[in-house]
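Researcher: I've been going back and forth with a colleague about how Leucine rich repeat containing 17 might be arranged in three dimensions. Neither of us has a model we trust, so I'd like an independent prediction. The organism is Hippocampus comes, in case that matters for your notes. Sequence below.
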Amino acid sequence: MRVTSSFVVISLLALLLLFPLVEMKRAGKGRGLKGARRKLARDRVRGAGRHGRSDSSRPGNCSESLESGRVFADCQGCRLTSIPRPQTWSRAPKYLLLARNRIKVLRDEAFAGYESLTSLDLQQNHISLVEEGAFEGLTRLTTLLLQHNRLTSLSEEALIPMPNLRYLRLYDNPLNCHCDMDSLVQTLQVPSNRNLGNHARCAEPLRLKGKKLKRIDPELLCKKSDPNEKPQGDQTDPKDPAEPSPFQNKPDAITSCHTYYFPHVRVDCSHRGLTEVPAGIPEDAVQIDLSHNSIRHLKAKSFQGAKSLKTLNLSHNNMERIDTASLFGLLHLRELDLSENSLHFIQYGVLEDLYFLSKLKLGGNPWVCDYSIHYMMYWLRLHPVVRPSGLMCRSPPEYTGESVEEYVRAYNRGCPKDRQQSPRDQT
Ligand SMILES: *[C@@H]1O[C@H](CO)[C@@H](O)[C@H](O)[C@H]1NC(C)=O
Ligand SMILES: *[C@@H]1O[C@H](CO)[C@@H](O)[C@H](O)[C@H]1NC(C)=O
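Model: Here is an independent structure prediction for Leucine rich repeat containing 17. You can compare it with whatever you and your colleague have in mind.
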């Protein structure tokens, strides 16, 4: 009797332990059985006890804010080397913004006390190691940003505690696509995980360099590189063509710029040496900063698809020409900064889509006060809400330093200076 009852208990226990494994497998997330088993083991060892890591990190000038009912904990650019303690915040944050700090390692349970997080931004740190239990407890996390770090590897098991993860950014990490990465690669390739690990590429080994994790054949990861086969094999193998550098043609916004997602999508492409507007600006980008680049010519459909854009900064470029259709589609643009460029006039039609524009910065351009400037003045008169700034004539000499408005007013009075007799003789 006694024997049978303990047998029943043991069987029940075994069932209870197996059940989550079966569930996890059925969920088809591609997260390996091996990982689930190890997680269970870990949980059992750990029991209920939580050892909060009490890093004595100073939160520097971090700030806490509330935007449309969401609590943001903002420590961007605060020179932090570790995760601020959760007690730092008066309320449990949903968004923890740690971009542009100096964090190097994410230890097990690094986010204990942050269980209510839905978004975690760790981009542009110095992270080279993520321990398997680093994200333990982040069951509500949907967005994890790890781009622009120093990761050579990431264990798929690190993702297991986050069943709700929808967005994972890993690009611009020097990933070494070795055999240990195969379960991560498989997970990223599960169709339902279509926003996990997009754009991430292998940096090593040489034969996989530049390949996307999303596309790579997981079998190749564990293939021993055969020294006899390799030397020129790479170039001649039709199945594995040496991929030319993918960024040679048009620059791509995701890889050439920094994208911040909270509280709204903002793309920072300033100071990148760009000679043209990068492709692939995220559709939900609200702000893009392209200042301090070398763009000379704004081409048609440059911002195609970026239909949520409200602020566009093109200041401090060398723009001489703006094609008529280059700003088409920017129906919601509020602020346009064209200052410090080499513009002489705005071509007819350029501004036609900008129904909601209210701020237009035009200073620091060599505006030419002749007939070519009339389109802009005409458009401004039809859009009295728009407050332009810096619209001064640089030439011809008789108008240098005068406002364009004044020039046009004089023109309309029928007595523009260039119709008076030879003003050029006087100078
Ligand atoms: C913290 O201070 C630095 C430099 O003073 C600044 O660049 C950064 O934006 C600040 N961060 C926050 C979250 O206020
Ligand atoms: C555009 O960028 C310049 C240079 O960084 C900055 O001074 C200016 O305020 C920005 N304009 C807008 C509208 O944010």
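Researcher: What would you highlight for our discussion?
Model: I'd start with this: The CA atoms of residues 160 and 394 lie 62 Å apart. After that, consider the following. The pocket of 2-acetamido-2-deoxy-beta-D-glucopyranose (ligand 2) is lined by residues 270, 291, 313, 315-316, 335, 337, 361 (CB under 6 Å).
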